Write the structure tokens for this entry.
Amino acid sequence: MAVELAPTPSAPVPAALVTLHLQVLHLALLDAYDSACSSREQFLQSCLTYIHLSRDAFDSDTLKIAWVLLYMKSGHASTYALQVFHCSRGVGSFLDWATFEKDFCVEFFLLDPAKTMALILCDREQYEQGKHTLDEYINSFWALVEQATYPDDLQLCLTFQDGLHPVLVECINNLAEGCPNNKEIAS
């Protein structure tokens, strides 16, 4: 009786085994989309990734669009999906995937992301460090700045400081003590 040994980690894996493994790959299904601004890019990217990895399952753009609409289950997303399904041509009212994706972006993405992000940065109550770590605050602040294309460096610095936790602001203010003043620097 012959005993087959499993390939060792250093041995090459046969192509047939790799193909078999890819055929039994099961992708996780998407989370439902409720039109929340914070998840729109994630939802669209997840849809595109799933469709790309499951090309054989989606033989038409109409099927892709219908599949995406099935995950729009609450909020404005649900209303949007119902409007599409109740159209006289239904999902077929979109010429192709690109037309649907463009309509999705118009419906759910911000019209002017730079202006919206700049307004968020200007609204101290909407944007502050709160209970986030300093690293988290800095990362999210810079992400907003990049999207907002903020032109004024001084205002940017003041906005950043305004959003910091008051204890950190106090520490920063205390660091300035003992520094030479402008008259001492000029002499």
About this structure: The two ends are 96 Å apart (CA to CA). Residues 45 and 155 are 34 Å apart (CA to CA). Residues 134-148 form the longest helix (15 residues).
